[in-house]
Amino acid sequence: MGLINPVYGFGGLDGAVHLGEDCFEPAKTVPGAIINSLVVGVITTFFFAVSMLYCMKDLDAAVNSRTGVPIYEVWFQATQSSVAATIFMAMMLLALFITSIGSVQSGSRLTWSFARDDAIILSQYIKITSDKFGVPGLSLLFNAFWLALLGYMDNDMRLRSSAFNVSIGTAILTELISFSFPAALMMWQGRNQKFLPANSPFNLGRFGWLVNSLVVAWTAFALIVFSFPVTLPVSAGSM
After folding, report:
1. Mind spelling out the 3-state secondary structure of the chain?
2. pLDDT tens digits, 5-17
């Protein structure tokens, strides 16, 4: 069974990287944001997952929920109240809305960076920045178009099992590859000091080789395992 869906939650880890030009001391702030988000995510997710598993009484009812949202059914089983389940659902949607602001911001900056270097279609328009608001407005609209297209694919049952999963899976796999390239090149150069920052606030020291090796090995493993189909039996469409 494919693991691409649960790993998708880590797809926004690179968001802070794309905002490096918008923050002070990016060499310190950006890595700190990534590390802190992982620490907070692991702690909160652990307690959330344990609580949900402990409170869930009927797995089949949650998976085949009439609402199409399994977590709503889990909350209903835990509280025996549709009102409480709805409140929890509203809280989750609010959290998703807040986090989407950062996702939209980092995504627009990434698209704008490509356009600034004329590395994307319609670059002459996308790289224009609003003088009034100081944001790449056309970059936001460009990303919104593709997000709307993905949303349509997700809601079209003819495309949902193939095109949408491929699009989501490709995003995660290419992100992992981009993470592994610097680590692989660093090992290729023998972690030579001339390629390492002299006064980095996040110096790996003696653990550098281990961390770089784990990144490359995990990427090679993920490229294979995460490409497995998400359902059985396997057919040409589900691949």
Report:
1. CCCHHHHHHHCCHHHHHHHHHHCCCHHHHHHHHHHHHHHHHHHHHHHHHHHHHHHCCCHHHHHCCCCCCHHHHHHHHHHCCHHHHHHHHHHHHHHHHHHHHHHHHHHHHHHHHHHHCCCCCCHHHHCCCCCCCCCCHHHHHHHHHHHHHHHHHHHCHHHHHHHHHHHHHHHHHHHHHHHHHHHHHHHHCCCCHHHCCCCCCCCCHHHHHHHHHHHHHHHHHHHHHCCCCCCCCCCCCCC
2. 666 666 677 777 7
